[in-house]
Design a protein that fits this description.
single chain; mainly alpha; two-stranded antiparallel ribbon; globular
């Protein structure tokens, strides 16, 4: 249901974007370009083949915004919201399908998780939209309607980590405007940390009667996400500052360099906005950004990548193997072997998809260098949307591959594999054990 739901939304969105009413000049947008834009919006990626600010009409922008919002909330979460609005209750099937999106730990948590998700989305997007509106209206002199629309569009795109902007240069014009880049940076971090993390933090908020309640520890997911977010943001900022201070940022004022380093240190985790030109980045900086994009953000949020919790579980498994221990441990908790296998599956499938796609695009478009193709493919799979500028120039087969990679990155490799696997034909017997040589 999750896999089919997102695929259906992408197709419907692409068909709407092909209509003359969706383009600024009233022409019919080619099917491939429309489908690519729809896939990029639904998957919360931000890669484009048509300039978002000039090609699409107001109706087209509204369609893209709706696709971003539906992709961020999730197909099954939207189904649950519709069910609660119409009937006031949820069927067991709806609860199970919504839990399959990963936001709730169990079917019983679905109702409050979906409501909390909606509230967090509305509050953060409105706060960011108001700040951006004030900046556009009072400082840049935009008209009231345009400032309100631009503020809302960028706020929704930022919180959902979609990376769609209204300007051809994304946020490069505002690289030194802290009101804009820091507001969007905060919104994308909040959305990228994942809804279960915020729900867990909300449960542990200070209460007047806290002395009468038994304290429960934070979830491992919350701890990994909080620590991982802080560490990766610092590393990302240092990566950009050290690598591009006299490179892509040469000649810029120090204030702009600092803000550019901060914002571009945050965005590789899954955001897609750029206030600096990645086409001018040094290959070493691009390689470091590749790593940040692959890791991604928090689970069950708007972030992409294989997720920080996946990486943490793999690191714990490696440490346990080095120590000769039977169980992997994180923060004083033993990890179930099923969790380790799932993390290994997600990482292996993700890397395999990236490697195969890179090889295929190098065959289809040999005119581009390997580092730029690698950057584009990882950006698509991790639903980041950062680009060195080659996506519009890629051939049709390469763009189709990126559509598939963005879709797979949004629903998650393990979701697709589970959907295709015949889970109801499990073996009812065990085979003989044999230990092969490893390494």
């Amino acid at each position: 249901m999750v896999a089919v739901g997102f695929a259906t939304l992408i197709i419907l969105g692409g068909l709407v974007l092909t209509l003359p009413i969706s383009s600024a000049d009233g022409s019919v947008t080619p099917v491939l370009s429309a489908m690519f834009t729809s896939a990029s919006a639904v998957s919360l990626t931000g890669l484009i083949v048509e300039d978002a600010g000039t090609h699409w009409s107001e109706f087209g922008h509204a369609t893209i915004l709706a696709l971003i919002q539906m992709g961020g909330l999730g197909i099954m979460s939207l189904t649950s919201l519709a069910g609660m609005a119409l009937t006031g209750k949820l069927s067991l099937r709806t609860r199970l399908n919504t839990a399959a999106e990963g936001r709730a730990q169990s079917a019983g948590d679905v109702r409050r998780t979906v409501i909390a998700t909606l509230l967090l989305t509305v509050v953060v997007e409105l706060c960011a939209a108001v700040i951006l509106f004030c900046r556009f209206f009072f400082h840049y002199g935009m008209g009231f309607g345009k400032a309100a629309w631009w503020g809302l569009f960028h706020a929704v795109s930022g919180f959902n980590n979609a990376g769609f902007g209204m300007r051809q240069d994304s946020l490069m014009t505002w690289v030194g405007d802290g009101w804009i880049v820091l507001t969007l940076g905060a919104a994308l971090v909040i959305g990228g940390m994942g809804f279960p993390v915020w729900a867990d933090l909300f449960r542990h908020r200070p209460r007047r009667d806290s002395r009468l309640r038994l304290s429960t520890p934070l979830m491992i997911t919350t701890k990994v996400t909080l620590v991982g977010t802080a560490v990766l943001i610092v590393l990302g900022v240092l990566l950009v500052a050290l690598g591009e201070w006299n490179g892509a940022m040469e000649g810029m004022p120090t204030h702009d360099k600092i803000l550019g380093s901060i914002f571009q240190g945050v965005t590789p985790r899954t955001a897609g906005f750029n206030s600096l030109d990645y086409g001018q980045f040094h290959p070493t900086t691009l390689m470091g950004t590749d790593i940040l994009m692959i890791i991604g953000g928090g689970s069950a949020g708007t972030a992409g990548g294989i997720k920080m919790t996946t990486c943490a579980v793999l690191v714990a498994a490696i440490i346990a193997e080095f120590r000769g221990e039977k169980s992997s441990v994180l923060w004083g908790r033993r990890l179930d072997h099923t969790v380790v296998r799932q993390a290994l599956t997600v990482a292996t499938l993700g890397i395999s998809v990236v490697v195969v796609t890179i090889g295929a695009i190098q065959v289809f478009d040999p005119q581009f260098t390997s580092d730029r193709i690698t950057f584009e493919v990882i950006s698509a799979f991790a639903t980041v949307g950062l680009t060195t500028g080659i996506t519009p120039a890629l051939s049709a087969p390469s763009q189709i591959l990126l559509i598939l990679v963005m879709y797979l990155g949004r629903i998650g490799p393990i979701t697709l594999v589970t959907a295709l696997a015949l889970r109801n034909t499990q073996r009812r017997y065990e085979l003989p054990t044999e230990r092969p040589y490893i390494g």
